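User: Structure please.
Assistant: Input sequence and predicted structure:
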Amino acid sequence: SHDLPEPHNMLDVFVIDAEPDLFGQVVRLTSRLRAAGLACEFSFKRQPVGKQLANAAQTGARLAIIVGQETRQRNVVTVKDLASRQQREVPLEQLLSSPQAALRGGS
């Protein structure tokens, strides 16, 4: 039977850095999301965004959060639903202050 827990398939969020110098933001965001009770990972390797998105999909994560130029310029992150491929922007502060609510917003 297949009801053994599959820890790797229980990932909520995969955080992606689109630019190397935003990695600190990724780590900060990941720890904040984990503190809010979300299963969250990020890529330790420097890779292009497309590759990181592919990794995110492989982990079974429900959402990918992309920290990139728009984060630096407008303080927003891109939240991408990996199943529907829809994406939307979420203010970083909103995500840091109430992660669960901010991520639920688009479903």
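The longest helix spans residues 23-35.
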